[in-house]
């Protein structure tokens, strides 16, 4: 296969000069000290870049409003983390906790249903032929290209007519639709779910849905986890949809809630500290989740690409 | 296997199909419909009454004649032209570095790079906003000390500053996609290459990169689509930057048109135009590199 | 068999089309029937606002009025998205009964048919409870569309301690302001910043200089932005920026707060509600600020101040219990206890006449070194030109000015160019909305 790709531009770290590039769970053999230093050095510099804002928010979350603007960003000054945290969690009758709960509902609930619905659709597309199947699939894929602005306002007007605007449903329902999820499930189901297995089950007299639920779903699990995580993070991080749909602060997810504090901060300066504190609280658990889930994610992607 | 195929398929597709029709197709049809109308007012001071009249493509003409909107389209294309290579190359470099034998502490680094993905765009913008503002930012302060005066939030630099935020958020994710693909390469290929006398660099160029190509294509297309829809990051930086207007990106322009100027019809036209540009660029890219869409 | 799939799809499409036609018709059928309150009936009014501290006033009302409860929702500041919410709620037919509407946004609401006319519910009886020019702001001819709440009479905040240290007198005219700016530069600080993204501030300065941008002439709207007075103001600030006498950073942002706190910026021509901003964001400078009257133009025949910001409590269209809502709106903005609570929240300068003397505002303040600083603002409030009006596309005019100023600061054109462009673009805005403009 000829290589027409552009090779990566020269970076400050020279490419490794190993005698043996073994691809396997990290079992480094003879790489030179020099290449190790270069590679790890490069990785470390990148790590500083990625972790700098995290570090900053950790430091900033411990400061008072005055110190936030008055002292150097890189080091602590009169740390009062617990006080700040308490303020964040109790401000306006603990609305922050409410926001967290809302985010969990939207992201958790939405992703769960999205995964299931996408799995069904992807499986259906993969395993059953009908005329116009590719056209339907392409139509679904085209959905990925639609910008949120085109959808948000008409959606808002539509939902208002049935009095669903400014409710949990107004954010949940649109979030359940995941064309990407259908795409992934279709690919995965086509590659990983053997037809003979399905045939065997049919011969045994099982109904189609039963086959799907017991046989296919189990095999498709890595893809399902991937879609769940992808959708969860996407909904959790979504700002535009709740911005348009919601006006009652009790329904806000964290993204909307924190930005509302931030925009108020000009008039109510203590909100700067609260925003920073709130961002810190929201970011930490999610990062822990990223650490834990990263493993599942990797295996999900690996499976996906291998099968692909 | 073809028995009752169509009916069964319909059954499985129904839940998604209904939701998709209701929450994707219907709004876009409605948006296109709205983009073809406009409002006419009568009476003294125009306060007498209003009615919705058919306007054909007038709104589209208006949108394209508005210098602000056309600028915003150009801007996101430029943004994409910068963002996409930066993102892909950075992700690729990180992925390759992590996968070499010389790497140490890989799980730690991989996690570190992936962490920002969990931070919502608006929060990331708030964070980086603090890191950009002179007087508050330790970075600006440090650079000042060595005599470099950077204005992250002004003029043309602010676009690069936004590129930075988006890169920071998503490189880790894209890197994981590439890593996954890299790890699926059969190690025997490396053996064979080594036997043939290939150097490390050679292996990267002729084995790793081509094998990673599908993943690169995937991430590129999604990056293009996401980049063209840029909205949250500039919106958050707007109050602290002197260069971000309310129509800095097409999505912001449409949002502004709809929600501040109450001109839903023009906003709908702008949103449709943006969708078209996104589709043209994405399909164009796929066509360019010889793929027909979704042949995986 | 294949047909089944096709049939399913066509059913979906038909359903979609049906839903679409339902959505397309029936647009804007809001509930316009008002209802009579039966004795003993409990009512809940929805109120959207962003004013800090207004919740306390609402709580007070709720405790005193068990039958008419007000439910407050705090939303984003109007210009940052609050109005967007209101417009879309109106469009969808589920708008709140009462809302915070700034004066400059009222014509826009009028155009969207979003506010109730309230003289029909007896509002004219309340006219004399409010300062004249603010009552003008909420009126359109004989019709009234909101209850005035607060305004922002302007003066100049400055760092007395640094002025003393550097031997500078607080300027009384703009010429002196420029001279003071030069002196302050010698000491490495700035007299203030010109915020390029905040053209509402510039508008107020033009207002002070005697400009009259907007108005009506019979059935037409009039637009006169690039007049003499405005050009004068634009050229003045262009010069100050060109000679690096003022900064050009955004106000109400971190960098600016830091500069205030650290004495990099030592003055601020601003409205009365700026006191809360200084207090909150530059706490370490307490005791060092004073307030002086706004600098005047040399050719001004009499003392003139201006207004920056100002808002009202409006009844949105479709309010179910307009009389009760009106009662609340009037109470909120005239009742002494309510007004005191609002003042403490930092809402601005009260629109109620005689609200100043004896109120929380009328005292010496330690943050201002013991100065009875609000007296300066009270005086300013008496010297604001009453004839200033707004148009339905004011927010777009602000955008045009913002864009023009930002471009000028980056070297592309001048402030005067920005003003001229805004003139043309504003007329375009009105015409695009189908509104008649005089002379076009």
Fold and architecture overview:
The complex is a heterotrimer of chains A (308), B (296) and C (440). Chain A is mainly alpha-helical and 308 residues long. In chain A, 71% of the residues lie in helices and 0% in strands. Chain B is mainly alpha-helical and 296 residues long. Chain B has helices spanning 5-34, 58-65, 67-98, 106-114, 121-132, 138-145, 157-183, 187-195, 200-228, 232-237, 250-259, 264-288; strands spanning 37-42, 49-54. In chain B, a hairpin with a 6-residue loop joins β1 and β2. Mean pLDDT of chain B is 83; it is low at 292-296. By secondary structure, chain C is an alpha+beta fold. Chain C contains 16 helices and twelve strands. The longest helix of chain C is centred in the N-terminal third of the chain and has 23 residues, at 2-24. Mean pLDDT of chain C is 85; it is low at 1-33. Chains in contact: A-B, A-C, B-C. Chains A and B meet through α1, α3, α4, α5 and α7 of A and α1, α3, α4, α5 and α7 of B.
Structure described in brief:
Chain A is mainly α. Chain A is built from 13 helices and no strands.
**Overall pLDDT metric of chain B:** 83
Order of helices and strands of chain B: HEEHHHHHHHHHHH
| CATH architecture assignment of chain B | Orthogonal Bundle
Strand order across the biggest sheet of chain B?
1-2
Count structural domains of chain B. Answer: 1
Strands of chain B, count? 2
Net shape of chain A: globular
The percent range for strand residues of chain B is: under 5%
CATH top-level class of chain B: Mainly Alpha
Largest interface: A-B, 124 and 121 residues
Q: What fold name goes in the CATH topology slot of chain B?
A: MetI-like fold
Query: By CATH's scheme, which homologous superfamily of chain B applies?
Result: MetI-like
Chain oligomer state: heterotrimer
Instruction: Please state the overall shape of chain B, judged from the principal axes of the Cα atoms.
Output: globular
Element string of chain A (H = helix, E = strand)? HHHHHHHHHHHHH
Could you describe the largest sheet of chain A, including whether it forms a barrel? Answer: none
Helix proportion range of chain A: over 70%
Q: Label the structural class of chain B.
A: mainly alpha
What is the count of DSSP helices of chain A, taking H or I runs of 4+ residues? 13
Based on secondary structure, the structural category of chain A is: mainly alpha
